[in-house]
């Protein structure tokens, strides 16, 4: 060890551990690289050959960045780090597909109190596997050690991705029409939102992540770390189907803000929809946590997805065909409502969200048992 490295190690930064982490993750990252990626792993900058974009008439680049939030605290608590990476990719890449864009490449950032090579490799392996599943090249990343700022076993993850869509094929609220059908796609679980509330509920009840939850058939930690579903691959294949060309008008990724607010963001001003709760039954994990916390499911619709991970607003005449195509791709899909543009009193509706002056959405009826 050099004198400089030794001094850095005494300050709490282990550069050798960082190098080992890179070696452990290198093969998983390389599997996401096609001929468009130049330079391999370890460069100062990730390089992506954009010459494929020359085939576009008017390519629009789509970008997204996100993290996983306090879900990482559960991974840390039970020392299980091989699913957080998929959560990160889903939160970033599934926002890109919402505009109809194909993801091209992604970078990640991991901040930690101490580099534990196998832990970092597990996180990045999960990122790489999800990138591979969604056709996204993982072209670079950074692992930063912050002793004194973060605890030795603390870390956080974030990522950013870029995609491309032909301008005249971009999905957007302006395409939505009166009579369009709202299709809901099933979530795999809590995904990566609302975990501050989850942790609060469990802490109030004195429940540990290693405690077994009979209703869920697993420990709380295992059930809560169910990875976020990946919608990008199936959606892109349906969007590229000649028979369904133009059938999907807009998509909504149900993340922070809950069910109604996220759908309202992808509807035009003046459009409204009532989502029928009777069309689905919230997953057991939501029912269990609601009961533990003394909440009704209805009161949690702004915090959790309650079993819906993505919405598609589609042309009425081809709604059944789109739903069937999504089911063939492995996504459980059902009709949840019909768009209207007729005048009505919108009191009680969620109208727009996150700075978007969008449509109006409210949930009605009772959930299916």
TrEMBL record:
Its EC number is 6.3.3.1. This is Phosphoribosylformylglycinamidine cyclo-ligase. The lineage of its organism: Bacteria, Bacillati, Actinomycetota, Actinomycetes, Micrococcales. Pathway: Purine metabolism; IMP biosynthesis via de novo pathway; 5-amino-1-(5-phospho-D-ribosyl)imidazole from N(2)-formyl-N(1)-(5-phospho-D-ribosyl)glycinamide: step 2/2. GO terms for cellular component: cytosol. Keywords: ATP-binding, Cytoplasm, Ligase, Nucleotide-binding, Purine biosynthesis. Pfam families: AIRS (PF00586), AIRS_C (PF02769). PANTHER family: TRIFUNCTIONAL PURINE BIOSYNTHETIC PROTEIN ADENOSINE-3, TRIFUNCTIONAL PURINE BIOSYNTHETIC PROTEIN ADENOSINE-3-RELATED. It comes from Leucobacter soli.
């Amino acid at each position: 060890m050099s004198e400089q490295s030794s001094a850095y190690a005494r300050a709490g930064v282990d550069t050798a551990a960082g190098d080992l982490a890179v070696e452990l993750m290198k093969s998983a990252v390389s599997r996401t690289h096609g001929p468009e990626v130049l330079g391999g792993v370890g460069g100062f900058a990730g390089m992506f050959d954009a010459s494929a974009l020359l085939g576009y008439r008017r390519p629009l680049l789509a970008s997204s960045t996100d993290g996983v939030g306090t879900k990482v605290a559960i991974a840390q608590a039970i020392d299980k780090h091989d699913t957080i990476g998929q959560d990160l990719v889903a939160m970033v890449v599934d926002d890109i597909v919402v505009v109809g864009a194909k993801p091209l490449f992604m970078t990640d950032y991991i901040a930690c109190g101490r580099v534990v090579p196998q832990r970092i490799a597990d996180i990045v392996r999960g990122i790489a596997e999800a990138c591979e599943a969604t056709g996204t090249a993982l072209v670079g990343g950074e692992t930063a050690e912050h002793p004194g700022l973060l605890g030795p076993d603390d870390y956080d993850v974030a990522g950013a991705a870029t995609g491309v869509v032909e301008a005249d094929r971009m999905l957007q609220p302006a395409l939505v029409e009166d009579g369009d059908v709202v299709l809901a796609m099933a979530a795999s679980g809590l995904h990566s939102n609302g975990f501050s509330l989850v942790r609060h509920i469990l802490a109030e009840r004195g429940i540990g992540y290693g405690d077994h939850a009979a209703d869920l058939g697993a420990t709380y930690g295992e059930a809560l770390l169910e990875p976020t579903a990946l919608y990008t691959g199936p959606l892109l294949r349906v969007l590229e189907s000649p028979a369904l060309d133009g059938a999907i008008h807009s998509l909504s990724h149900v993340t922070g803000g809950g069910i109604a607010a996220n759908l309202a963001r992808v509807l035009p001003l003046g459009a409204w929809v009532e989502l029928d709760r009777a069309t689905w039954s919230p997953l057991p994990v939501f029912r269990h946590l609601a009961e533990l916390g003394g909440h009704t499911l209805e009161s949690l619709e702004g915090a959790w997805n309650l079993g819906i991970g993505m919405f598609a607003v589609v042309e009425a005449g081809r709604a059944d065909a789109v739903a069937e195509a999504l089911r063939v791709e492995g996504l459980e899909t059902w009709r949840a409502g019909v768009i209207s543009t007729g005048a009505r009193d919108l009191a009680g509706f969620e109208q727009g969200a996150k700075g978007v002056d969008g449509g109006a959405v409210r949930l009605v009826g009772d959930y299916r048992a």
